[in-house]
Amino acid sequence: MPVSPFSRKYLFLTVFIAGMSTLATEFTTSRLLQTVYGTSNIVWANVIGLVMLFLTLGYFLGGKLADKRPFPTTFYTLVTITGAASIFFLLLTSVLLKVASAAIFGMNGGLIAGSLVGVMMALAIPVTLLGCMSPFAIRLAVRDVDEAGRISGRIYATSTMGSLLGTYLPVLWVIPTYGSRITAVIFGTLLLLIGLGGLWQINRKKSLIPLALSLFLIPIAAFWTGGTLKAYEGQIFETESPYNYIQVIRREDCNYLLLNEGQAFHSFYCDNGRIPRISVWSIMLAAPYFNETVDNIETMAVIGLAAGTIPKQYIRVYEKIAIDGIELDPAIAQAGREYFAMNDPQLNVIIGDGRFELNQLDGRYDIITLDAYKVPYIPWHLTTRQFFEEIAAHLNDDGVLAMNVGRAPQDRRLVDALTATLQTVYPTVHAIDVPRSLNTILIATMEPTDASNLLNNSAALSGDTDPLLKEVLQTAVTNLAPLSPSALIFTDERAPVETLIDSLVIRYVLREGVSGLGGLE
Description:
It is a single chain. By secondary structure, this protein is of the alpha/beta class. It folds into two domains: 5-224, MFS general substrate transporter like domains (Growth Hormone, Chain: A), CATH 1.20.1250; 273-517, Rossmann fold. The chain contains 18 helices and eleven strands. It has helices spanning 5-37, 41-68, 72-105, 109-131, 133-141, 148-178, 180-202, 204-214, 217-224, 280-283, 309-317, 330-339, 354-358, 385-393, 413-423, 452-459, 467-478, 497-512, and strands at residues 235-240, 245-251, 254-259, 265-270, 299-303, 322-327, 347-351, 365-370, 395-406, 428-433, 439-445. The chain has a seven-stranded mixed beta sheet with strand order 7-6-5-8-9-11-10. Strands 1-2-3-4 form a four-stranded antiparallel beta sheet, with helices on both faces. Strand 5, helix 11 and strand 6 (322-327) form a beta-alpha-beta unit. Helix 1 packs parallel to helix 3 and helix 3 (72-105) runs antiparallel to helix 4 (109-131).
């Protein structure tokens, strides 16, 4: 049945909104998954792959339906149902993920897997329905065969332009401003209204029925968008930024920063500056003591500032040290100020990418620390020989680099590859395995150094040395690890960091099970 010129314009508007909603749904789903399953390549591959699969199914079903019932009423009814489904099933996904987050916190493997399957099935319905839009719209818009190619091209161009907007709008504005659940409601409601508008143009009386049915979504949306995304014990803050889902939880007298899936904490601060135990960030204090002598440590740069745990401990030991701290996510820095006492006057907070911002700085430093994990990954461009050369250019002649690297029991491939890469730039590299963790701190020195320097400097500490530094050096001495550099060297041209980490994580989980992932405890 041909449609009028006015309704064809509305048809193109519908296709544009459908294309925008498709990408918005994909990014909203990935953000919801990120809060529980993280941002690994595996998670992204699953989301993208399943979206493509369901869209393919939708293209097929939409084409068949269009040939069977090529009526505008059918099309706009489908659009209305798709908008309602986008709201309902994405909000249902958030509920399932809340269950999954509790399961991960308790390491319930069966519930984790079941929740993930439920999420994928919930995603199937709205995405499949969205895939039906374009072939159905082409069937309605084409008036004769001679214009089929031109109309098809316009439909797909319009849909793609909508998808382009749906790529940037949620990520850059809607999700950081309103959160992922409200984002699902916004884009689903927009599509729902477009469908209702089409039905209203065709038959106003009949459009009242789907309008009335759509009102049932209001209490669902009100109920399911309330509360927090997660329900961790002691949670005192959460927010969504363009980069991360951010949580702060409180245990006893300490605040902990969790990002995304929350399987590790990225900063901590205890009341009155108490440090409950030697941690990854404490071990960074040992870095300068691999030099033969240790003069005053006056300047420092921190790449991967998070909420300021490393600077806080360095300032405790070296009161007058000047620190440039680089953090990609401004929302994390703000959380640091509000919940982690990250307000030391010696700390200059710089917001931006670690590599780019370091190269904008003119100063040279006694020490640079690198702790830029987005669990389980290190950004690949912060692992290459060229980047380590750039760090060396910002270090003093006796400067040191301290880098946090992850590993698994009996699997040190990432440590070995980064050791080999560092050795192409620095004369000496040392390794410290952090107790009670799956972390190794690699120390690279600008001058040739020997591990015995650490023991000698530890023994030479004066009686009034901060007890934290004494304990750190003793811990470092007893946890020195042998080096086994691999043949793999990361460069700007080739740095298969993600592939290596994927292999490491999969092998570890297959051997240890989900319970082996540990957690905040």
